[in-house]
Write a structure and sequence with these properties.
It is a single chain. It is globular and about 60 Å long. 9% of the residues are buried. It is built from 6 helices and no strands. Helix 4 crosses helix 5. The protein is 80% helix and 0% strand.
């Protein structure tokens, strides 16, 4: 999931997929510790849920469809909304948008990519 988010953030900011550093991944892990806590609690209450979600992930990630990226994105959003309550997703999005470490790594990656682009001749 973290790699999926890293890829989406890179794409959103027009960065190469590998432009974001380990620091970005670590910041994501810290920000997501809250959702993992919610997930753990939910699975402890309903252990069957882990197998259900895993089966759905495999189905969605391996299915052939017209727009796989859109379907995958919708799937993950629906998992967050259905199993972890939308308010938790809003908290995470807010943290992602305001976390200084995440924003700093994005800005650093953009600066590095801009420095590597040769000026037009």
């Amino acid at each position: 999931m973290l790699e999926h988010l890293k890829t989406r953030v890179s794409s959103h900011y027009g960065l190469k997929p590998d432009a974001l550093s380990e620091e970005f991944s670590l910041a994501l892990i810290e920000v997501f510790s809250e959702i993992f806590g919610v997930f753990r609690k939910r699975v402890e209450e309903e252990p069957w849920l882990i197998f259900h979600i895993a089966r759905r992930i495999v189905e969605v990630e391996t299915s052939v469809c017209e727009n796989p990226k859109k379907r995958i994105n919708q799937f993950y959003l629906s998992v967050f909304c259905k199993y972890f309550a939308l308010q938790n997703l809003e908290i995470i999005i807010s943290k992602l948008q305001t976390d200084s470490r995440i924003q700093s790594t994005i800005l650093n990656a953009r600066s590095l990519e801009e420095q590597q682009v040769p000026p037009p001749s």
